[in-house]
Amino acid sequence: MRAQLRIQARADPLECHATVLIEYDGMLRCDFQLQPTQPEVVLGKLDLEIPYRPERAKYLHFWPVRWGSVFNSRAIPPEGYQISFKPFFWIGDDERGLAWFAESDQNFWDLDPNRVIEVRPEKNSTVLTIHLVGKPHPLAKPVEYTFGFQATPVKPMQPDAWDYRICHMGNDGIEENPPGILDRLAAYGVKTICFHEHWTDIQNYPRTTHGEKLRKLVQACHERGIQLLLYHGYEMSTLAPEWELYHEECLVSPRAGGYKRKPEQTAYIVCYRSHWQDFLCDGIDKLMDEYPIDGVYLDGTSEPWGCRNQRHGCGYVRPDGSVGTTYPIFAVRQTMRRIYTIVKKHNPKGQVNVHQSSCMVIPTLVFATSYWDGEHLQSIKRPASPGEVLPLDAFRAEFMGRNWGVPAELLWYPSGPFQRREAVGLALLHDVPVRPNRMEDVAVSARMWRAFDELARQEATWIPYWKSARFVRCDPASLKVSLYNRPGRGFVVVAFNLAQEKCLAKLTIDFSAMSQPEPVTAREVVREVPVTISGNAVELELNGLDYAMVCVQPR
Predict the structure, then answer these.
(1) Helix (H, G, I), strand (E, B) or coil at 529
(2) Beta-bridge partners for 335
């Protein structure tokens, strides 16, 4: 469902002709043309200004970004912020936001390259300014711009990432491996398994030569009430039969990627503005026809990789003859929409689980049922202050999912800068699960799932640490507490020690404010030990960057 508006305005010596396309998810595409109405018109300056209410303009997020930091997700500094052109820029708070995006900086003229985008706090608003023309510029012919806007959250988060209960442990023969790995996963409560790239020999290829193995695995998963998602990505492999004829037309330019795997092959980043979009979507459709899989795990597929390949329409020629970069947001959006439609056609409860890291480009990510974020942090060496790797403002801007309308999971590898308990505690504080990919990690997740089931989490209200002070008083100051409260039926407390030093965490609970009866019983969920509540006070020993998850129930 979509609506299209035509707009015309005139202020001598310029006319503006515009078309605004509004799609059902709230994405707005604005195509407009500025046309001189007389010869020798000089365009002195041109800015696009988007005002936000100051109380809603707490965070910013933009893309692309350098790997190895979260500098693109942060609280807006009091003095404002300015940066070079970025094709995607979002401003918002913990609950909502508004994004601006453009596929290129074509017709951006005479600007300070470090100040193309500017966030400027004013008395009654915070203004996002896109500088288009910085100095007087002759306008001898019409000039065109295409921008997009999208408000977030884009949809209700039901089901959410806790409901999907995803683990990353797919493999051929897992249903037959002793000591019954698949049975153990089912017993723990796993509901979704992602099978990474090795389900097919050709990287990011929607067909397999291991059909019988795949069919057995799908059947075994379904017998245990588990959904199976198969890996698809953002690459074209030198092993693909189509490589020789199509790679020059389909790859991004300049060539990027170069992932190597067995059997011997190299895979390069593809552009979904090319015909490879049709090939991938048709392949997923046929794959789901042949094997009743439950959806796809997409690795980087939602990212509109920069491209200058003019064979398929990317890139633009600058006045000096060089070729500028296109970020094909609308083509990737179309790809993601087609994949989502295909999956839901085959299975209304199917999933489009997306791994992206640092790239919350919401017009493409809107078609994900959940996203997995954080790989860009895993290559960082553990610093002296590991909490600086992922500050709270960065987490709240990018990693929570709530302010975007897409359920989130945090990615963790053993090689990363955090120990697993540190990552789990930080994520849990924000109501975000850390996806397990080892059996011991699934066991920990299973205890959390069980506690949430006992509480009936969907009937509880999540109270984040920035709103929990009237329900729980905390000491020391390094302690943050979030709650899941189901009035009259119990609650779950998540306490996280932000300091690197061990502390004695003291919590004073206001049972009346939470509409909870007394007396109660309590237990630490992960360690499975009882917790003593003396009156309304709880004391917990927490190591640095450690957490406790306490389930409290009426006696």
Answers:
(1) strand
(2) none
Q: How far apart (Å, rounded) are the C-alpha atoms in residues 237 and 209?
A: 16
Looking at the whole model, is its pTM more than 0.85? yes
Number of H helices, E strands in the chain: 10, 36
Summarised one tens digit per residue, pLDDT across range 499-549 is 999 999 999 999 999 999 999 999 999 999 999 999 999 999 999 999 999
Residue with tokens 């052109």: 85
DSSP H stretches of helix in 253-378: 276-290, 329-346, 362-365
pLDDT value at position 1? 78
CA–CA separation, 503 and 540 (whole Å): 8
The answer on pLDDT for 156 being more than 80 is yes
How is residue 326 annotated by DSSP?
B
pLDDT tens, position by position, 61-117: 999 998 999 999 999 999 999 999 999 999 999 999 999 999 999 999 999 999 999
In 3D space, the residue among 395, 383, 455 whose CA is nearest the CA of residue 425 turns out to be 395
Angstrom CA distances, 70 to 62, 164, 227, 373, stand at 10, 26, 32, 11
Q: Which tens digits make up the pLDDT trace of 355-364?
A: 999 999 999 9
467 pLDDT exceeds 90? Answer: yes
- Give the tens place of pLDDT for each residue, 80-92: 999 999 999 999 9
Asked if the bond preceding 476 is cis, omega within 30° of 0, the reply is yes
Give the pairing of strands 295-299 and 323-324.
Answer: unpaired
Closest CA to 429 of 499, 498, 371: 498
* Contacts (Cβ under 8 Å, ≥6 apart) of 83: 62, 114, 115, 116, 117
Quick check: 90 and 52 in contact, CB under 8 A? no
Q: Using an 8 Å Cβ cutoff, are 353 and 302 in contact?
A: no
Provide the pLDDT for residue 263.
96
318-327 own/partner pairs: CB under 8 Å, 24+ apart: 324/104, 324/105, 324/106, 325/104, 326/103, 326/104, 326/273, 327/64, 327/87, 327/88, 327/103, 327/104
**DSSP output for 473-488:** EEESTTEEEEEEEETT
Comparing C-alpha atoms, which of 437, 428, 432 is closest to residue 551?
A: 428
Q: For residue 350, which of 369, 372, 373 has the smallest C-alpha distance?
A: 369
For the record, the structure tokens of 356 come out as 């992206």
**How many angstroms separate the CA atoms of 481 and 507, rounded?**
9
